[in-house]
Design goal:
With about 140 residues, this protein is mainly beta. About 5% of the residues lie in helices and about 45% in strands.
C-alpha cells in the first residue's frame, strides 16, 4: 500500500462491484487506506467515510432495471483509527452464498476531487467448503 497506488474515483461518491472467485457465505468486509504518516500531504481526506455493502439476489449487478439488492450493512471508515478496518456484515437473513458484492461509497473525509480505496477484502466461507465441513467441529 503506497500513496497514490489506489483505486480512485472522481468526487466523493462511487461504487465498485467485486466478483468473487467462488460463491461465498459473507461474514465481513475489510477496507484499507494509507496512514496520515504515509501521505505526502499529511492528510487522508480522500479516504472513504460512509460505506454500504450490498449483494444481488439475481447473482450479478448487470441489469439495473431488474436488480434486487439486499443491504448487508452500512459503516463508517474512521480515519483516526487503524488504517485496516473490518466490519461485520448482517447475513443472518440470507443463508446463501453470493458471487458478487457491491461496495457503495457514499462520502469521503472532505476531498472534493476524488476518493481513494487502497484495499478491500471480503471475508466468509466458500459455499463448497461450508457444505463439505458441516457436522464437523
Amino acid at each position: 500500500v503506497f500513496p497514490g497506488n489506489c483505486w480512485a474515483f472522481k468526487g466523493h461518491q462511487g461504487q465498485v462491484v467485486i466478483r468473487l472467485p467462488a460463491r461465498v457465505h459473507l461474514t465481513a468486509i475489510t477496507v484499507q487506506h494509507i496512514t496520515k504518516d504515509a501521505s505526502p500531504s499529511g492528510t487522508i481526506i480522500s479516504a472513504p467515510k460512509d460505506i454500504a455493502v450490498f449483494v444481488s439476489l439475481l447473482g450479478t449487478f448487470v441489469d439495473a432495471d431488474r436488480e434486487e439488492e439486499i443491504l448487508l450493512g452500512t459503516f463508517t471508515y474512521n480515519m483516526e483509527k487503524d488504517p485496516i478496518q473490518t466490519f461485520p456484515l448482517k447475513n443472518m437473513l440470507l443463508p446463501r452464498a453470493f458471487s458478487h458484492v457491491k461496495l457503495l461509497v457514499k462520502s469521503n473525509w472532505g476531498n472534493p476531487w476524488y476518493t481513494c480505496i487502497y484495499r478491500v477484502q471480503v471475508h466468509g466461507k466458500m459455499e463448497n467448503w461450508k457444505a463439505s465441513t458441516e457436522g464437523q467441529d
